Each structure stands twice: as structure tokens, then as C-alpha cells.
Amino acid sequence: RKAAFAALRDLPPETKDGHRVTLMVNAGLRDDVAALDLTGADGIGLFRTEFQFLVSATLPQRERQQRLYREVLEAAGDRPVIFRTVDIGGDKALPYLTVESEGEENPAMGWRALRLALERDGLMKAQARALLEAAAGRTLQVMFPMVSEAWEFEEARALFDAQRDWLAARGKRLPQDIRFGAMLEVPALAEQLDLLLPHIDFLSIGTNDLTQFLFAADRANPKLAERYDWLSASILRFIRRATEEAHAAGVPVAVCGEMGGRPLEALALIAIGVDRLSITPAAVGPVKAMIRSLDRAAATGELAALLANPPRDLRGTLEAWAVAQGI
Ligand code: PEP
Ligand code: MG
């Protein structure tokens, strides 16, 4: 099967009825970019910039951040890279930045990601500048983690704009184009999509955190790992509604959580309209094989029926359908 997946490397992730899915990989290290050539993926849909911070004993200085981002962009060539600003704090605590987050009872719901970055804006400014400089002459794509209200996106975006203006005023070379996205992983944001969508170029759904917050089930607790299924009516209806709303505003939707790396889950996501998946590199072969054997229109019909009247065992029902379809 491994050889069969390798043979798929240069074939497009296109369904039998001609629907082209964008299949990207998640990364966090300079060397992860090699996965693009190995898998034939369309780009990096989630570059977790906090990795560099987590492996460092001291706060990575702007020059070091910039070097990493430039190396990643150069190695990716023409393929797009979406950098996510740091998702640190909470359980991804840094020894040099813990003081205020120490002793939080619920770190996953705590002072992390954008919440921390907007307050510690020195950190965010340095990262914004590093990204803008690294992408000089290219397209820069940035997304923000844990956006909970639309104004948080706007504040983060304004911080980038100010850094861009600062560089421009000094005659520095800027990115040719800058695109901004928001992660949808805090359920509350779904109730403000009308406020957010006019301001973003893409939406990326983080199903790891989204699932934990929708079900109130700690993603790191092994006792709960089996209890709630990604293929549940709640999750799929949530994602479908957000996707429909985004599409109505002309905004493309990605899923960048682990959910998208499982073929049956990926099938459901594509059936409900998700445009792009960003997944772990090892999943590209299996997911592409599924896509190429899928009749998307039929899957959309099946999902609509399942979500209109969800069976208790949605997974089992969908799996039986997929098998009957020869997927
Ligand atoms: C997610 O929450 O689904 C996600 C992609 O981000 P992370 O796993 O880094 O929290
Ligand atoms: Mg997350």
C-alpha cells in the first residue's frame, strides 16, 4: 500500500466527478518542508510557529524567527505556506514566559495564543516584522489561533498593518501580497462570523480544539479520547454551517486539525463543502487515494441525508456507505 500511495504523489487530489480538493500538510520545523516533495502536497496549510519557541531555552530573537520563515518560504518555492502566529501559553508554557499563566486551572482555556499575544504585543510585533521581512517580494499568508471574537482578529491584523507601514516608511521591501486568515476553534466565533468574514481571506477550522470545546472534553484526557466521535452530527453540522456561511461571503474554508487526516472524516468534510485539508504528511497518501475514488456529489447527498436524520452510529453508517461505493 505504501508503494501505491507513493505512485499517487504526482496525481491531483481530484474526485471522480472532477472536484479538485486542496491538500496541504501541517508543519512546524524547517525540515518538515521536505514533506512537500515527498507527498506532492499543494503547500503548507498550517505552519505552527510556536515550535521554534518551544524548543528554545530563551525567547527566539526576531532575526532568528525571520531566518526560519525565510528558509521555509524558500524551500516551499511556489507552493503556499500559511504561518500561524504563536499558540503558546496554557499547556504549551515557555520557561521564559510563564509568570502570568502559572497555576491556571484550565490552561487550554487560559491565557494562550492570541489572548497572550495581544497583551504581550512586543512578542507579536517582533513576529509580525519577522514574517513581513522574511516574505519580502513574495506572498505572505498569516493566520491567528484561538480567535474568540471578531475584534481580536482586527486587533491582530492592525498590528501587522502597523509593522508593514513601519517597514514601508523606511523603504524596506514588502511582501507582494499579504493574506490574513482566522482559525475557527473557539465555538463562540461561529456566532460572529458575519462580523469576521468581510475582513478575512480564508477560514481555517482547528478541529482539535474545536472538538474539545464543543464537547467540553479535554483533548489530552485519555479517558475521553474514545467517547466523542469526530463523525458526530454536532461537529459535522457545526462545520457545515460555518462553511456555508463562509462560502456565502466568498471565503474559502480549510480544516487543519487531525480530523482531516483520517480518510472517512476527510470524506465527510469534503462532502459538506470544505475546500482544503491541511493534514499530517503521512496521511496525504491515504486521503488522496480516498479522494480519487470518491463521487463527491453522491457523498454530499449521503451526508445531507445522514445529518438531516442522524443515526446513532453515524460513523458505522457512513463507513458502510463508503465500502458499498468501492471507496
Ligand atoms: C487545532 O486545534 O485543531 C489545531 C490545528 O491547532 P493545534 O492542534 O496546534 O492546537
Ligand atoms: Mg488549536
TrEMBL record:
One example of a Gene Ontology biological process annotation: phosphoenolpyruvate-dependent sugar phosphotransferase system
UniProt keyword terms in alphabetical order: Cytoplasm, Kinase, Magnesium, Metal-binding, Phosphotransferase system, Sugar transport, Transferase, Transport
GO cellular component: cytoplasm
One annotated GO molecular function: kinase activity
UniProt-annotated location(s): Cytoplasm
Annotated family: Belongs to the PEP-utilizing enzyme family.
Protein name (record): phosphoenolpyruvate--protein phosphotransferase
Organism listed in the record: Sphingomonas metalli
Span of the entire protein shown here: 428 to 754 of 757
